[in-house]
Amino acid sequence: MDDMARYSYLISAEDDTAGISIDKDFIHDKHYALVDGYGRIRGFYDGLDPASINKLIGDINLLLKEDTLNP
User: Fold this and answer.
1) Are 11 and 33 in contact (CB under 8 A)?
2) How far apart are CA 71 and CA 69, in angstroms?
3) Collapsing DSSP states into helix, strand and coil, what is residue 45?
4) Cα(66)–Cα(60) distance, rounded to whole angstroms?
């Protein structure tokens, strides 16, 4: 999961990740990314903003509905 966050989606708590070992680094910040079953980012949310979290919950429900329509 760390490799995916850092290299696939370029989500990192650091601006410059050159020379940082992923084995010794823990990636975290206040943001959430909603990723679908195809590995596509479907949304990016501020985990400290209640409105953003409500949007995330709504987007999760939409994504679940999409998934049931396309088995």
Assistant:
1) yes
2) 6
3) strand
4) 10
Task: Evaluate if residue 43 carries a pLDDT over 90.
Answer: yes
**Tokens at residue 46, please?**
């501020």
All residues at 6 or more sequence positions from 35 whose CB lies less than 8 Å from its CB, including other chains: 9, 41, 42
Q: Residues 59, 7, 27, 29: what is their CA dihedral angle, to the nearest 10 degrees?
A: -40
Question: 3-class SS at 57?
Answer: helix
Q: What is the chain's mean pLDDT, rounded?
A: 77
The domain limits of the chain are 30-71
Percent of the chain with pLDDT over 90: 39
